[in-house]
């Protein structure tokens, strides 16, 4: 993903915490629409089973494939991509939008799946949820092994019979807003084509890291 020196520290903190929080949401099968919090609870149980599966202990690639398939049913990558591109979305052709959504979704998947092994006993405590039509937010706390609390808000959209996550807000910092700032800066100082070029370059880097077994 495009990176700038000014936001390197914040993105590092975001990535570490975000990966741990998203890791708890990767493994839920399609569920009937109900309270968003209830669906998140089910997802926690499912992903823990995936992480603790002894048959996948020495098969990181198989674990990533399993997580990727499930993640596609949990996260609304198209909505995340659209919101992250912000006002620049309207000017894009359908072909450009399709390419951007595919690239962005792939980069997000690679980022947290490559770090799924970072999970080490963190727990999620659900605080409250709020539903307004087809949108919902779930407030929670990530409780670390050291006992500290990290506030996390999951923003979701109802699609059919499921609630899909499109944004995660960690300690007041939004995943979508963070990327929107990065993308806007690149497009304004260069072009949308340059943004896509940088994203493809990052995709290649992450692909090489995954092949070598290193975290991307």
- The CATH topology, please? Nuclear Transport Factor 2, Chain: A
Classified in CATH, the superfamily is Tgt2/MlaC
What is the architecture at the second tier of CATH? Roll
Looking at how many chains there are and whether they match, the oligomeric state comes to single chain
Radius of gyration: 17 Å
Overall pLDDT score: 79
Order of helices and strands: HHHHHEEEEEHH
Could you give a short account of the major beta sheet?
A: 5 strands, antiparallel
Q: What's the total helix number?
A: 7
Between the first and last Cα atoms, what is the distance in angstroms? 11 Å
What proportion of the residues is helical, as a percent range? 40-55%
Beta percentage is 15-25%
The number of distinct structural domains comes to 1
Class from secondary-structure proportions:
alpha+beta
List keywords for this structure.
5-stranded antiparallel sheet, Nuclear Transport Factor 2, Chain: A, single chain, disordered C terminus, 216 residues, 7 helices, disordered N terminus
Write up what this structure looks like.
The protein has a single domain (5-202), classed as Tgt2/MlaC (Nuclear Transport Factor 2, Chain: A, Roll). Helix 4 crosses helix 6 and helix 5 (94-113) packs parallel to helix 7. By secondary structure, the chain is α+β, with helices and mostly antiparallel strands. Residues 3-13, 26-33 and 212-216 have low confidence and may be disordered. It is 52% helix and 19% strand. It contains 7 helices and 5 strands. Strands 1-2-3-4-5 form a 5-stranded antiparallel sheet. It has helices at residues 8-23, 36-52, 60-74, 77-85, 94-113, 175-189, 192-212; strands at residues 123-132, 135-143, 149-159, 162-170, 173-174. The chain is globular. The longest helix has 21 residues, at 192-212.
């Amino acid at each position: 993903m495009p990176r700038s020196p000014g936001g390197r520290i914040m993105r590092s903190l975001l990535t570490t915490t975000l990966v741990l929080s998203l890791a708890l949401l990767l493994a839920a099968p399609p569920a009937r629409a109900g309270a968003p919090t209830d669906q998140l609870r089910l997802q926690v149980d499912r992903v823990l089973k995936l992480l603790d599966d002894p048959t996948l202990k020495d098969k990181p690639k198989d674990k990533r494939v399993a997580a990727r398939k499930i993640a596609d049913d949990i996260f609304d990558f198209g909505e995340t991509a659209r919101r992250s591109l912000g006002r620049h979305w309207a000017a894009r052709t359908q072909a450009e939008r399709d390419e951007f959504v595919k690239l962005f979704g792939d980069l997000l998947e690679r980022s947290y799946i490559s770090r799924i092994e970072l999970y080490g006993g963190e727990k999620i405590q659900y605080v409250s949820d709020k539903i307004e039509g087809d949108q919902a937010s779930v407030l929670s706390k990530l409780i670390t092994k050291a006992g500290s609390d990290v506030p996390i808000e999951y923003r979701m959209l109802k699609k059919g019979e499921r609630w899909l996550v499109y944004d995660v807000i960690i300690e007041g910092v939004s995943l979508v807003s963070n990327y929107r700032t990065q993308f806007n800066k690149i497009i304004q100082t260069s072009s949308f084509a340059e943004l896509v070029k940088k994203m493809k370059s990052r995709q290649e880097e992450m692909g090489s890291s995954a092949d070598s077994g290193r975290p991307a």
